[in-house]
Amino acid sequence: MGACYSKKPLDQESIFFKVQKCIEKNIIMSLTSLTKTEEFTKNITNIDNPYFKIKELRVNALILALFFNSIDCFKYIHETLNASIDSMETLFNEQKTSAIEIICTRNCPDILDYYLPLYENNSGDEVVIEEVVESLNFTNTTEERKSRRIVSTYTPVQKACELGNLNIISRIYKYYKEKPFIPIALDFDYQDETTGENCPLISCRICNYTMIRFLHTTCQANFRLLNKLGENAVQILAAANKKKNFKDFYECFVYLVLNVGVDFTHNYEETLLLLETEKSINFFEKKLKEKGIEIDKYDLEEKYQLIRINQPRPLKEELLDVYQGRDFNFVKLYDDVMSDTDREEISGIFMDSRNTTPFVSILKDLPPN
Asked: Residues 78, 90: contact at Cβ < 8 Å?
């Protein structure tokens, strides 16, 4: 489909470059003027063709406006230039993604408001997870690469939740709150087939207090489900905190127990073993006692032989002790201790490792909205 397009950078004097810059900056007046020129009609004969580029990715005008959350240009291209939503989705489908997923992950609330009625009329009630090709080009002229399975099977709304895009979650809630049906892709309570997580459980795993409160208080989403490992919201939160030590952990923990009413007695020993701060431990032991469960974390650790053992320090770490203090000298440290370090240890990153989610390599380099 794109074999006829040159791979050279766009000439800054060309109509393609001018149009692309107008769309990226959402300058609707300039875009309107350009589309009325002879140069535009002569060169852009089909508005649905991928004339433009985001890095090495060929996109059409609608996709370009969507990526940059250029709502005025998006509406103009769709309504006035009669760009096809179906053609845009076809290009997205070839990359095993969709417009609604890009909107949710790129945090484009304005385009979401405009796009939801269009999406609702055409959405099916299925979540399709397929193998993806690592190549990010829409054309068939690039070297084909080995397919890989997508790691995340999350729906678009679950990805928005994981990224903390509260604006997206809020707009979806407002749009569907009075409607009898909501597509799986935008359903807060839908449980992922791989992890068993829904949006509330995801908000606990990322320890996002604002998201947790919004999903509970405003959306009345279901926090009482278990994931595929049989863990509830409290356990998921505690397990995530043990790995990352979130600053809002205690507030989230207390909120789930006192406000949401999650059954904190479910596998309570496992939860208690996961807690680390005295404040959280004391609170949890007190709530368990109110339920008639007398338990002490440190007795529990001893019961399961989880007493912390002092590990011997590496010799090289001990050598560094003499270099501490106000007279620290990095040059002397390097000469004495570090000069024999194998240079090959510096680079431990696999050179061919890459994220297999479509568009990720370009999303991270795009300016934030």
From this structure: no
The 10s digit of each residue's pLDDT in 163-186 is: 999 999 999 999 999 999 999 999
What's phi and psi for 131, nearest 5 deg?
-70, 145
**Which DSSP string corresponds to 76-89?**
HHHHTS---HHHHH
Residue with tokens 């809630």: 173
pTM: 0.74
Q: Closest by alpha carbon to 360, among 172, 210, 152, 206?
A: 152
Q: Domain coordinates of the chain in residue numbers?
A: 1-94, 97-122+153-187, 204-335
Looking at the DSSP assignment, which residues form a beta bridge with residue 52? 59
Q: In sequence order, what are the residues at sequence separation of 6 or more whose Cβ sits closer than 8 angstroms to the Cβ of residue 175?
A: 113, 116
Q: Residue 341: count other Cβ atoms within 10 Å of its Cβ.
A: 11
Kindly list the distances between the CA atom of residue 86 and the CA atoms of 75, 212, 217, 287, in Å, as whole numbers in the listed order.
15, 35, 37, 54
